[in-house]
Every structure is written in structure tokens, then in C-alpha cells.
Amino acid sequence: MNPITAPNGTVLVINAGSSSIKYQLVDPVGGEAIASGIVERIGQDVGIVTHKYAGSEARLDQPVADHSVGLRLVLDLFAKHGPDLDAAHIVAVGHRVVQGGAVFSGPVVVTDEVVEQIRALVPLAPLHNPGHVAGLEVARELLPDVPHVVVFDTAFFQTLPKAAYTYAIPPAVAEANQIRRYGFHGTSHEFVSKAAAEFVGRPLEDLRQIVLHLGNGASVSAVRGGRAVDTSMGLTPLEGLVMGTRSGDIDPAVIFHLHREGKMSIDEIDTLLNKQSGMLGLTGESDFRAIHDLVAEGDASAVLGLEVYAHRLKKYVGAYLAVLGGADVITFTAGIGENDDVVRWQALAGLEELGIELDADLNAGRIKQPKVISTPSSRVTVLVVPTNEELAIARQAVELAG
Ligand code: ADP
Fold first, then answer.
1. Which cofactors (predicted)?
2. pLDDT per position as a tens digit, 85-114
3. Cα of 336 to ligand 1 centre, how many Å?
4. Candidates 153, 184, 289: which one to mutate for ligand 1, based on the most atoms within 8 Å of Cβ?
5. Which sequence positions are flagged as catalytic?
């Protein structure tokens, strides 16, 4: 086994979903992902565990009854295929939790009370928080000697002004049901807005930024002086941009219409808008690589899908330019933002009047390091900055765990 070169120790970052556990062993100082893997299909007939370390991959195909079995298998894989976790000197375990409600505005060290608070937020995140709680409980049991820290996707957006997070419905109804804009992908928006400021060499406090996190899920944020002032996702991650399988913004009356006239149940509509819409619904594919292949074959629905996607993105850029009174930096990140030059171009083309001028050559291709893609004369600096949510979680975990 290769020796680990992380003199200050490592952080095990865990992202436990309802039927999966993703993990990464991170060097929080150097930023390297030393090992990573995923347990999939927990609770199904056959589960899959994939573990990557030092350029090789180990795979198990066997039933994984629950999160406890899953995490035990992961620890076995570390023991068998490396790296040796004793030698890795884990200083903290960092857990990603999607919904922290209005309770958590930053990362916290896990206690029994914190677990109960996350459990109490299950009604707000029924797809996510139950898996997080299961993962937290098992990880604390199996790794009892290190501090566990939870980092919330919503925390960065707890600074939104009331006008930005309030929906125009009667306040009594909103309060009784905890309905407000929470925002998601906060770890990425925070990490990328800080990295963008560092990259352009200006104080975070001075910058008005728009961050475009375009992964399978996608969201935009407006960040003033390092604090989020608006974001496109809302009560749930369904609102906002067109996504891989989510519709994003839609007239809420579509839901009543589908229920009353289309005879669809609420659960069917939930599935339709979350899992069968967005790019998948429009083009038959959710992955942009496949969508570009369709476009190359002359597929009209794929062409339209890309246009709908870019149109929505452009609308949000315009809205957040207005919210911020102009922007200094606009940054693309995540799978599509980092890799898809066509989407970047379509989203920001024709905005010269607003101070945004992309450089076609600088924009071309996949971008793996922070890079300016606007022209020198562009008033707004446009960047691509790769996100790294695991590293952001690892660093917050170390900071909090001391
Ligand atoms: P998430 O973390 O939300 O699952 P990612 O940020 O990893 O998503 O982004 C995944 C998406 O990135 C894929 O679904 C695909 O649409 C897009 N993507 C990845 N590589 C490329 C590429 N080379 N060109 C265009 N799009 C890409």
C-alpha cells in the first residue's frame, strides 16, 4: 500500500442518501481525494460497492441490507485494498446534509440533539434527510473516536434577505408549514464564490457575484460581499433552472391542471416534475454529452431542449444582475458548467450591453482549473471554477473539530 502523505490527517466525507452512501477520504490541506467510493442499491436484491484507491478499483456485488451493512463493507474495503485508516489518521468525519431548515446556519459538531434536529426536518426533505440520519447514526457507531461534523446544503442561504426568501402566500400558512426559500448546493456556491474572489485577486467583501452551479441538479446564486442574497432553488431543489430531470420553474397551476384534468395523483406529478422532466423530459436524455450527440444527428427536440435550458439560465443571470445592481464576477461550475462550452456560450451570448463579453477561444473546451473566459474589455469577469464539495466539507469539518 502506498504511504499517505497528509501530515495533518485526513477527513472522511460521507454523503448518505436513501439508498446510497458516497464517501471520499480527503486531505483537507493539500485538497487531494486519497480514496473514494460508493455503496449503491442499499436495501435492494443486489447492492454494489465500488472503492477507488491508488489508481485501482475494487468492486463488490452483494446484498446490502441497510446503511450499517454498507458502511461496514466500506471499512472492510479500506482494510483490504487500502489505504489503512489507522495510518490515514482521520481527524474528523464530515457529513453532507441537504436540509438544515431555518435551524442551522453553519456546520455543527454532531451530538444526539443534532441528529434529532435533522430527523425533525424530515418532512421538509423526505427524500434526503432519512438517509442522512441513517448514515450519521451508523458512522458515529463505527467511528466513535473522531468528531463528526454536519455541513448543510442550505446553510449558506440562511443570510438571504426576507424579501428574497418569502413566498407571497399568507404568512400563517407559510409558518405553519415551514414554507420559505431555503436554497440548496450552498456548500458549492460558498466554495466557488470564495475561490473566484481568490482567483481574481480581489477581496470577497468587495465583489458582487453570480454563481451558476450546473450539475445534474442546477442552481444560481447572487452573492454580495461573500453573503448570499438570492438563489434559484426554493423550499425544495425543484425550483429554478431547468435541470437533468427536474422542470425547475413552472406555473404552479400546472399541478392543479394535471391533477384535475390530467387525472394524475400528487405522487405521480411529484415524480413527473422531479424525475421525468427537465432535459430528460424535453430530449429523452438528461446527460448533456448525449444531448449534444442528438443535436449532431439533427434531433429537433434536443436543439429545442438546449435553447430552453439556456433561455432559463439567461433569465436568471438578468434577474440577479438586477438584484445585485450589476455584477463583478459570473462563475460557471459543476459538471455542465465546467465541461460544456456550448451551454456557457448560449447562456451569456448577446449580453454585451450588460457588460458581459465571452471570448470564444478562452471559452472553448472542458476547463479543469480556474480560468477567465471573458474578453479583457468585458466589464463583468466571467470565470469557470471547478467546484469541490467534498473538500469544502472536509475543510469545514476540520475547522470545527479543531
Ligand atoms: P451532480 O453532482 O449533480 O450529479 P455533476 O456536477 O457531476 O452532477 O454534473 C453531472 C452532469 O455534467 C452530467 O449529467 C452531464 O450532463 C454533465 N457533463 C459531464 N461531463 C460533461 C461533458 N464532457 N460535456 C458536457 N456535459 C458534461
1. Mg(2+); Mn(2+)
2. 999 999 999 999 999 999 999 999 999 999
3. 5
4. 289
5. 153
